[in-house]
């Protein structure tokens, strides 16, 4: 024995290296059949797989130029990071964008900008920009809700995001007066940190589910009664990244806690069905909206990605006929994000936001229904100039998902579907989540929202307006093509939005339904 040990000890370090390489070569050639390259080129073949795996990081850090990457390029990410940290988010020497490029937009400035009068609410708070419409006002719901912020956290469930991320976001919206959409996974304790909540459910009915997987009105009522932070309810029909696909939560992310909240099994993929059990046609959807609103008193809306319009036309016809309908509609763009989706869905199914929203808005415009609905947009709109375009097209609020994730530290590693998110944002791994300092990250989200609103307001003032709701389709110009160099949105998309009733900012500030105040001001 001691002789064997002596022989092993006598082998120099390079001898060990040689032995390892020989063993790997034997394994590559004789014992593995799954990788042809390693078989045909033992040892060196491994380099290919390793280089391929670090390729995205290498390109992101060293190769890609500032405006090259998708979904969000370095300049966009940098703007969010700097805004969230209240650092210098300016750029020097002028734009690095090709401002003659196809689809580039221009916000038209006024000859003389809007001057904020002394004593004006925005002279005191430069970040105060609430929604100009009240959810549930037209339909006379018992608990109308005016979102206090025009930028809010979009649907992302506890499950696709970590507990630490959800908690940081909820605390962040509380600090910045925004609302937090729960996403499909139900209402967890991490959503109850003081922020206004929009409770969202999809085909899985997580949190409001009967044992056989249908919608439970009893649970819905109880949830709302027990949680006054819920200000509105959103029924998800589809989302831009995977319309008609149903939710996918990979088994790797299903911990005991998650399984308990959702009523599912640990470690098993959770696939929400593609379609709803609670309704089978538009009339039944409309009835469900009315029933939920009646039972809970809250405004009820729907979220969808836009493709074919015939069923939306049917909804609008029914709204016209019955005088009822959703209090808000969230329109998601095909460029929207997700925790996990097949690439063919994410890349090709449903229209990009501008095409989807403009088509849908026209459906309601044609029937003079637009003033009955609060329109919410989502799909990479978390940048002030993009938001100006969206407001000009008719939105009243925007929701942001990935921009909110970045504000709390997401580095766009694009591994939300693997449970290996290095930033601890989209994972259930306890060690990775520990990296999130919740108080700090909640400040960052709040600061991003406040910086966004301040800059958006500055752009609004530059255009001569007091509130972004005053933007019209003629205020934004769009590069089209060589013959027709640049057109207004009104001419490119063929409509003008309905004028949003607006007197002044002070009126919005004094509104009894503003943000979290509405619970003290119900009509019950
Ligand atoms: C991690 C993650 C999870 C999401 N989960 C949901 C969800 O549960 N329900 C839903 O309707 N949309 C979900 N979305 C879509 C977002 O709410 C949003 O509509 C979309 O990402 C567009 O916004 P963005 O461009 O600001 O990210 C999710 C997006 C991400 C990135």
Output the keywords.
single chain, 524 residues, alpha/beta, eight-stranded parallel beta sheet, three-stranded antiparallel beta sheet, 19 helices, binds flavin mononucleotide, Aldolase_TIM, membrane, transmembrane, Glu_synthdom, Glutamate synthase domain-containing protein 2
Account of the protein in words:
- The protein is of the alpha/beta class and 524 residues long.
- The protein is 39% helix and 10% strand.
- Strand 12 and strand 13 form a beta hairpin.
- Helix 5 packs across helix 17 (438-462), helix 7 crosses helix 17 and helix 14 crosses helix 17 (438-462).
- The model is unreliable at 518-524 (pLDDT under 50).
- The structure holds flavin mononucleotide (FMN).
- The site of flavin mononucleotide (FMN) has 27 residues, from helix 15.
- Flavin mononucleotide (FMN) binds next to helix 15.
Summarize the structure.
The chain is 39% helix and 10% strand. The protein is an alpha/beta fold. It has an 8-stranded parallel β-sheet.
Number of DSSP helical runs: 19
Number of strands: 13
Class computed from helices, strands and strand pairing: alpha/beta
- Taken from the alpha-carbon principal axes, the silhouette is globular
Strand residue percentage:
5-15%
Q: Which spans have pLDDT < 50 for at least 5 consecutive residues?
A: 518-524
Question: What small molecules does this complex bind?
Answer: flavin mononucleotide
Percent of residues in helices: 25-40%
Strand order of the largest sheet: 2-11-10-9-8-5-4-3
How are the secondary structure elements laid out?
Blueprint: H1 2-10, H2 13-31, H3 36-40, H4 44-63, H5 74-84, E1 105-107, H6 121-124, E2 151-153, H7 163-176, E3 179-181, E4 196-201, H8 217-226, E5 230-236, E6 248-249, H9 256-262, E7 270-271, H10 282-296, E8 300-305, H11 310-322, E9 328-332, H12 343-348, H13 353-366, E10 374-378, H14 384-393, E11 397-400, H15 402-407, H16 430-433, H17 438-462, E12 476-479, E13 486-488, H18 489-493, H19 505-510
Parallel strand pairs: 2-11, 3-4, 4-5, 5-8, 8-9, 9-10, 10-11
Antiparallel strand pairs: 1-12, 6-7, 12-13
């Amino acid at each position: 024995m001691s002789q064997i040990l002596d022989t092993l000890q006598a082998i120099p370090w390079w001898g060990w290296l040689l032995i390892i390489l020989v063993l790997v070569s034997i394994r590559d050639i004789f014992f593995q059949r799954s990788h042809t390259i390693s078989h045909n080129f033992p040892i060196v073949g491994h380099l290919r797989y390793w280089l391929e795996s670090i390729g995205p990081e290498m390109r992101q850090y060293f190769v890609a130029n500032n405006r090259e990457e998708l979904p969000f390029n370095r300049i966009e990410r940098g703007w969010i990071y700097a805004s969230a940290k209240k650092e210098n988010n300016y750029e020097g020497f002028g734009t690095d964008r090709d401002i003659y490029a196809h689809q580039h937009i221009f916000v038209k400035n006024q000859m003389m900008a809007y001057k904020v009068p002394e004593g004006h609410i925005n002279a005191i708070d430069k970040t105060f920009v609430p929604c100009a419409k009240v959810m549930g006002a037209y339909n006379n719901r018992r608990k109308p809700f005016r979102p206090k912020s025009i930028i809010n956290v979009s649907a992302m469930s506890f499950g696709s995001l970590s507990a630490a991320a959800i908690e940081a976001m909820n605390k962040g919206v509380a600090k910045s007066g925004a609302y937090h959409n729960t996403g499909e996974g139900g209402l967890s304790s991490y959503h109850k940190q003081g922020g206004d909540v929009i409770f969202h459910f999809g085909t899985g009915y997580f949190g409001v589910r009967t044992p056989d997987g249908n919608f439970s009105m009893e649970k819905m009522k109880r949830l709302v009664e027990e949680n006054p932070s819920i200000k509105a309810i959103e029924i998800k029909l589809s989302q831009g990244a995977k319309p008609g696909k149903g939710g996918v939560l990979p088994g790797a992310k299903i911990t005991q806690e998650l399984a308990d909240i959702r009523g599912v099994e640990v470690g098993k993929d959770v696939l929400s069905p593609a379609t709803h059990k609670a309704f089978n046609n538009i009339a039944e959807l409309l009835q469900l909206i009315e029933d939920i609103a009646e039972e809970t008193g809250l405004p009820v809306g729907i979220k969808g990605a836009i493709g074919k319009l015939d069923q939306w036309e049917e909804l609008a016809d029914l709204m016209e006929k019955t005088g009822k309908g959703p209090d808000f509609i969230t329109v998601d763009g095909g460029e929207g994000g997700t925790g996990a989706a097949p690439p063919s869905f994410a890349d090709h199914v449903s229209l990009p936001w501008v095409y989807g929203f403009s088509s849908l808005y026209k459906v309601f415009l044609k029937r003079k229904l637009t003033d009955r609905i609060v329109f919410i947009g989502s799909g990479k709109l978390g940048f002030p100039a993009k938001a100006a375009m969206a407001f000009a097209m008719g939105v009243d609020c925007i929701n942001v998902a990935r921009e909110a994730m970045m504000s709390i530290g997401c580095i766009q590693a694009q591994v939300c579907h693997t449970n290996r998110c290095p930033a601890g944002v989209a994972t259930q791994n306890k060690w990775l989540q520990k990296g999130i300092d919740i108080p700090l990250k909640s400040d960052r989200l709040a600061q991003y929202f406040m910086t966004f609103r301040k800059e958006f307001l500055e752009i609004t003032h530059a255009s001569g307006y007091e509130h972004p709701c005053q933007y019209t389709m003629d205020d934004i110009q769009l590069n089209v093509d060589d013959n027709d160099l640049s057109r207004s949105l009104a001419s490119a998309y063929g409509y003008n939005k309905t004028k949003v009733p607006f007197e002044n900012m002070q009126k919005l500030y004094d509104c009894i339904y503003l943000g979290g105040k509405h619970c003290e001001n119900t009509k019950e």
